[in-house]
Amino acid sequence: MVKVELSELLAAGVHFGHKAHHWNPKMSPYIYTEKDGVHIIDLIQTSVLLKQACNFVQTASQTGKSFLFVGTKRQAAPVIAKEAQRCGAHYVNYRWLGGMLTNWITFRTRIQRLKDLENQQQQGEIDNLPKKEAAKLTKELERLRKYFTGVKTMTKEPDIIVIIDQKIEIIAIKEALALNKPIISILDTNCNPDLVTLPIPGNDDAVQSIKYIIEKLAESISNGQINYRNNKTKIK
């Protein structure tokens, strides 16, 4: 089990919430105090809930469950890509397209289009086309990569969704809820804990805060995958 230290949460700025007048009253159980007009998140609760989330994803990973990380805001995007790749999760870090979960069959055709274009590029077929047509396909390829690189290997709906910013990713959350997918989410003081399965109260704006929480989740998923592979080897 990964370790979560209060001193590390504090150093990462996980405790800083939004200005008090922007809060959601449903987050009151997770707020420690208000200072200079800003809500301060109770890091003891954050620590407990982050550990619970880590245990949950590790247990799920041990049984072969798949994960989708969603974080499209500028400060979250690089962290999402890095940590998802580290633990073998899928990710969306550019923009969530409506229907990516609820209309997955249709989106699979767009992902296949991305794979086809990448194959054509690798084979040099695009370079051999007339200049105008080659430019058009190259532009299409770049656009598809922005949207679908992180889900290129996703062959089915993910089992568990990890969200960075509830406000920004509300469409993804609604789709996950419609499909009864477990949702783990960092929740700042302006969020609604009723919309997620496992809340992690914390600063969802600061890079270091996002990085700390996502790293812990990714590490837990990786640990679970090691056990999953070891168990499969024993069965063989």
Automatic annotation (TrEMBL):
Signal peptide: none
The UniProt record lists the keyword Chaperone: no
Record's GO cellular component terms: chloroplast; mitochondrial small ribosomal subunit
Keyword entries, A-Z: Chloroplast, Plastid, Ribonucleoprotein, Ribosomal protein
Source organism, top-level taxon: Eukaryota
Biological process terms in GO annotation: translation
Family: Belongs to the universal ribosomal protein uS2 family.
InterPro entries from the UniProt entry: Ribosomal_uS2 (IPR001865), Ribosomal_uS2_bac/mit/plastid (IPR005706), Ribosomal_uS2_CS (IPR018130), Ribosomal_uS2_flav_dom_sf (IPR023591)
Protein name: Small ribosomal subunit protein uS2c
Taxonomic path: Eukaryota, Sar, Stramenopiles, Ochrophyta, PX clade
Gene Ontology terms for molecular function: structural constituent of ribosome
UniProt-listed Gene3D superfamilies: Glucose-6-phosphate isomerase like protein, domain 1, Helix hairpin bin
PROSITE patterns assigned to the protein according to its UniProt record, in alphabetical order: RIBOSOMAL_S2_1
UniProt key word Cell membrane: no
Locations listed in the record: Plastid, Chloroplast
